[in-house]
Amino acid sequence: xxxxxxxxxRELLAAELRRVRDLAGVSGRDxxxxxxxxxxxxxxxxxxxxxxxLPEVTAWxxxxxxxxxxxxxxxxxxxxxxxxxxxxRTAVRQRRNLQDSIHHLESTATRIAxxxxxxxxxxxxxxxxxxxxxxxxxxxxxxADPAADVAGRMNRQLALYETxxxxxxxxxxxxxxxxxxxVSLQVAxxxxxxxxxxxxxxxxxxxxxxxxxxxxTTHNFVVYEGxxxxxxxxxxxxxxxxxxxxDTAEHVALYRSRWSDLCRTALFGDDAREFLRGVATALxxxxxx
Length: 289
Prior knowledge:
Blueprint: H1 9-24, H2 28-35, H3 39-47, H4 54-64, H5 68-81, E1 84-87, H6 88-94, H7 99-107, E2 111-116, H8 127-139, H9 147-156, E3 166-172, H10 173-177, H11 183-196, E4 202-207, E5 221-225, E6 233-238, E7 242-246, H12 249-263, H13 269-288
Parallel strand pairs: 2-3, 3-4
Antiparallel strand pairs: 1-7, 2-5, 5-6, 6-7
Helix pairs in contact: 1-4, 1-5, 2-3, 4-5, 7-9, 8-9, 11-13
């Protein structure tokens, strides 16, 4: 049965690249060595987590001895795969647990930089905060039980304790004050952020509302970087209707530049933790009134 119409461009490209490698009987490790990329990148390319460049695909086909027709088909698939948009409605319908695809990106990256202007990032959420946020999201689509997504999100957080990986977070004061439940829930959430920020492989920056802005805070984004190739990066952006994946070097560079600009307005380390305590105290006082 032809299911190509149901697959995203990157999934078609990944399936085709994996197919031609399997037909050639070449291991992922051997192919990586031949074309000069990491084995982990080969794995991410074949899973659809990363879209390779045209030169990489050209080398892929050349080393595997594919036909000119196949090489042309691969080039066409690349054009369709870059900077894809994945509607949430389709994702919810196809996968019960939306955390799986995110987990794959996270598990194959060694440095993850998350900017969140609207709410606490998923990797830092308490279980109850996550449950309420996911329930709000799910309500727009199918009303399904969000339990699997909550469990998946909690499982993803185990990566924070892997000392060979680094996690950077930038969170606006607006996100820290937006609360999907009672004040007690938000205070517990702020305490968790402060606690996680003490891990050596985690950096948390908070951006106060009254700071002089150096960059727009229009939407959230996450930059995923590999360990062996500085140019091997993917960015994800969440909108109301869809999730966007960005792989082109030019566009990734824009997000890295925005990250640097935002960092100049943030508080880090003890200053950030003191700010978190101040927000928690203000919330308690407003609740007591």
